[in-house]
Amino acid sequence: MPSELVPLPDLILRLKRDERLFGLDVGTKTIGLALSDVMRQIASPFDTIRRTKFTADAVKLLEHCKAQGVGGLVVGLPMNLDGTEGPRAQSTRAFVRSLGALTDMPMAFWDERLSTAAAERALFEADASRKRRAEVIDKMAAAYILQGALDRVNYA
Q1: Which residue among 14, 63, 147, 151 sits deepest, i.e. has the most Cβ atoms within 10 Å of its Cβ?
Q2: How far apart are CA 35 and CA 41, in angstroms?
Q3: CA end-to-end span of the chain, whole Å?
């Protein structure tokens, strides 16, 4: 059965006890991953998948999901600052549609405006080297996306 794109509150309701969430920052070259704790309170940077072909990327992502007990995905939707969707948002929607054909795991979008900028700022303030920032920025942005979604459902 293919996956379903659902509103964020419905995604949380569909999870089984102790299932985690993955946050995804889908880019053209990488997919940043962040993992929630089992209580779904805290998002932590997890991994960065270097993009190759869609099928290989999806297989790696779904293997991570299985290994970490992930029951749902929160995918960052890169909106323009004026609230419209551009080519990057369309590309992310296409990725989610294709991924949805390979899994029955529910997915929800989360507005990711400025998530990479916020992650970059946090790394800069932590005095991370340019090399270190480049290594971790995508999974940090995914953590920022996932934490925003978790905060929304936990404190709404």
Answers
A1: 147
A2: 10
A3: 31
* Whether residue 20 has pLDDT greater than 80: yes
Burial class of residue 93, CB neighbours in 10 A (0-12, 13-18, 19+): middle
**What torsion do the CA atoms of 147, 54, 85, 100 make, to the nearest 10 degrees?**
-70
Higher-confidence residue of 83 and 46: namely 46
* Predicted TM-score of the model (pTM): 0.90
Element of type H or E holding 117: helix 115-125
Can you list the pairs that 61-68 forms with residues at least 24 positions away whose Cβ atoms lie under 8 Å?
61/22, 61/24, 61/31, 61/33, 61/99, 62/102, 62/103, 64/22, 64/33, 65/22, 65/103, 65/105, 68/20, 68/22, 68/35
SS3 at position 81: coil
Q: What is the pLDDT of residue 132?
A: 62
CA pair distance 152, 59, nearest whole angstrom = 29
- Mean pLDDT for the stretch of residues 22-34: 95
Rg (CA), the chain: 15
In a 13 Å sphere around the CA of 150, the CA atoms on its Cβ side amount to 23
